[in-house]
Specification:
Blueprint: E1 3-7, H1 11-23, E2 27-31, H2 34-44, E3 48-52, E4 54-55, E5 58-59, H3 60-69, E6 77-82, H4 87-96, E7 100-103, H5 108-121, H6 137-144, H7 149-155, E8 159-162, E9 167-169, E10 177-183, E11 185-191, E12 197-204, E13 208-209, H8 212-216, E14 223-226, E15 230-236, H9 237-244, H10 248-274, H11 277-294, E16 302-304, H12 307-314, H13 318-330, E17 334-337, E18 340-343, H14 346-353
Parallel strand pairs: 1-2, 1-3, 3-6, 6-7
Antiparallel strand pairs: 4-5, 8-15, 9-14, 10-13, 10-15, 11-12, 11-14, 16-18, 17-18
Helix pairs in contact: 4-6, 11-14, 12-13
Length: about 350
């Protein structure tokens, strides 16, 4: 009989999970004490450990690390039960090596599906991914393809080095690859008839890009350029599609997130059209800060981006950006260096946007 160890300090919840799994013909061991759980895992050799992320004096991450240090996870899957559904938290869990994450409050069918899937083939379930607060396709792919076929593709592909300002692809070309940034950052942009540049998006380490034209099956509508020296992995479109299309739930989520991206772009258009220059730039700085901060790219909140690129992100003159940034500096909202800025009063800057 397949054995499961439950670590949960809430007695009602612990008994509920035990009953559900017992009725499903699993052998269940349960405890509220992490240190007792280590002893039980050593003696009973469970195939799965279900651990709450909120235990007295310790969280699920520390319990996982303790199990890992004691080599108790060699033939065992560690699944975290959590009420924290923010992307940063889920991504941190997956990247730390935790095998799966089950959202709380508990859904019985979801629990059984996750456990059965893990028992059957050791693959991550994360079935109803709409429960998790992911706000881009890149965040989904980066988070939930760990130990998947797509991550396997990355290991077997050689990275290409691009110098700063090098063009990665041009508008009008057919997509032949999807790209993964191993280091550095990339901007996608368009130019009008006068040659004025408008940046569509900025991607950084850990992001995939170049997949939209592939999914739409059309020529690329924008250009991609390295913002600094980059190492980028090229994944042939056919291989990328083969992996993505193998899982129907991924297709559904990608469609939902692409729709969300469209709605967000409409919101940005309204901001560009109706907000004052001061408010436009404040919102841009806040958005950049939040994007870089959530992926760990800040160095004491220092955001590296040129005034020219800031202007191209919101379609205004560089001189206007420079004047507004100086105003923000004088108001002690930011600090400025040659090609970077640091927000010193984030709450005030965000209130300006709101």
């Amino acid at each position: 009989m397949k054995r499961i160890l439950i670590i949960e300090n809430n007695k009602v919840l612990r008994n509920n999970i035990s009953d559900i799994l017992t009725l499903a013909s699993y052998e269940v061991i349960a405890t509220e004490h992490p240190h007792v759980a280590c002893e039980l895992a050593f003696k009973q050799q469970p195939q799965i450990i279900l651990c709450s992320n909120q235990l007295p004096g310790v969280d699920g991450f520390k319990v996982y690390e303790e199990f890992k240090e004691n080599q108790l996870l060699n033939d065992c899957s560690f699944i975290l039960l959590t009420q924290n559904l923010e992307w940063q938290y889920i991504k941190a869990a997956i990247e730390s090596g935790i095998d799966d994450v089950i959202p709380m409050p508990l859904n019985n069918a979801y629990l059984l599906s996750a456990v059965a899937n893990r028992m059957a083939d050791g693959k991550s379930y994360c079935g109803d991914l709409s429960k998790f607060k992911l706000n881009s396709v890149s965040q989904y792919i980066t988070t939930f393809t760990k130990n998947s076929q797509l991550e396997g593709l990355l290991h077997y592909k050689q990275e290409t080095t691009y110098k700063k300002k090098a063009i990665i692809f041009k508008a009008g070309s057919f997509p032949t690859s999807v790209y993964f940034i191993k280091s550095g950052s990339v901007k996608t942009f368009r130019k009008n008839e006068e040659g004025k540049e408008l940046i569509c998006n900025i991607y950084q380490r850990g992001d995939f890009f170049g997949y939209v034209s592939l999914l739409l099956d059309e020529r690329r509508t924008d250009n991609a350029e390295a913002m600094d020296d980059c190492e980028i992995i090229h994944i042939p479109c056919s291989e990328f599609l083969e992996v993505i299309l193998a899982e129907p739930k991924i297709i559904k989520l990608v469609m939902k997130l692409l729709t969300t991206d469209i709605v967000e772009k409409e919101g940005k258009m309204l901001n560009f059209a109706y907000n004052s220059l001061r408010k436009k730039i404040a919102k841009l700085l806040v958005d950049l800060y939040e994007k870089y901060a959530e992926t760990g790219e800040t160095n004491q909140d220092l955001i590296k981006i040129s005034r020219e690129n800031l202007a191209a992100l919101i379609g205004v003159a560089k001189e206007s950006v420079i004047r507004t940034l100086k105003d923000f500096k004088n108001e002690q909202l930011i600090e400025l260096t040659h090609n970077s800025f640091k927000i010193t009063n984030f709450s005030k800057l965000k209130n300006m946007v709101n």
